[in-house]
Amino acid sequence: MTITLERLEATRRTGLVEVADGVYAYVQPDGGWCVNNSGVIVGDGTTVLFDSVATQSRAEKLRLAVDTVAPLGQSQTILVNSHHHSDHTFGNSQFPAAVTVAHDLARQEMIEAGQGLRNLWPDVVWGETPIVLPSITFHDQVTLHAGQIQVELIHVGPAHTTNDVVAWLPEQRVLFTGDVIMSGVTPFCLMGSVAGTLFALERLRELDPRVIVSGHGPVGGPELFETTEDYFRWINKLALDGLSTGRTPLEVAATADLGPFATLLDPERLVPNLHRAYAELNGTPLGAPIDLMAAMQDMVTHNGGRPVSHA
After folding, report:
1. What is the pTM of this model?
2. Is 1 helix (H, G, I), strand (E, B) or coil?
3. What is the rounded CA–CA span in Å between residue 62 and residue 36?
4. How far is CA 209 from CA 51, 180, 204, 231, in A?
5. Before 123, cis peptide (omega within 30)?
6. Among positive and negative, which fits the CA dihedral 177, 178, 180, 183?
7. Would strands 46-50 and 165-169 be described as parallel, antiparallel, or unpaired?
8. pLDDT (tens digit, 9 = 90+) per residue, 200-215?
9. Cα–Cα distance between 182 and 18 in angstroms, integer?
10. Residues whose CB falls within 8 Å of the CB of residue 145, separated by 6 or more in sequence, listed in order
């Protein structure tokens, strides 16, 4: 199963894009808040869907797209949730026959989060988004088989969250990262860890992927590692400077020069990322709870209002 130059060029497109034989990225523009990507892996008798989407209408479109390459009535479907965030799980209900798989921690986090995302962006047309919890969970790693395609699910959190799972296809050298990596979009680790993300990226580099399907934004390659690593090293430096001068995350963000990160979508994530970095530098264990509401309120203040979601 090969990845051709034509397919690599096709990764600039959106919608359902084949990146290897039977392996597809489902890319939703613009990749900002609540507009995520999915993956579709089609094998004889089994289809693996990596993440659902945020709204009923988007999930219906995803289901129709999946049906064009793997008619749902002709194969069993395994739906993997890369983590508990609702933009990756609200669409689970559109795949009622699927067996849903996630990390052990994701199930409880989904229960606790409930429908809360809808309150953050009340103007979004969410539709019906009943919570569908994973029926199978795992702790460290598990291997799925979509026909002859091997899919290794690996827990790499705490990173974006505590319960991040990536899907690695070793033969195809395709990596689905969930939100551990974002492409052209500002990284976000408020519910995870700055240091944990850097450690996760080290692990993922060792896999030597050729194609990376990130949680948001265009399909890319190994260059996405560098962008994410550089960003979080910069966050750590800002946080160290802020702590040494007695400034708050909001104060640091107000004077920060985004430099090469200015072109990334949703730059306001700087503020909650600084909150997480401050907590870790002050000794909070990686991934441990912090005051999420304070961090998000500071982000709204810095942004001059609630960030926009095009979900």
Report:
1. 0.94
2. coil
3. 11
4. 19, 15, 8, 20
5. no
6. positive
7. unpaired
8. 999 999 999 999 999 9
9. 19
10. 43, 46, 151
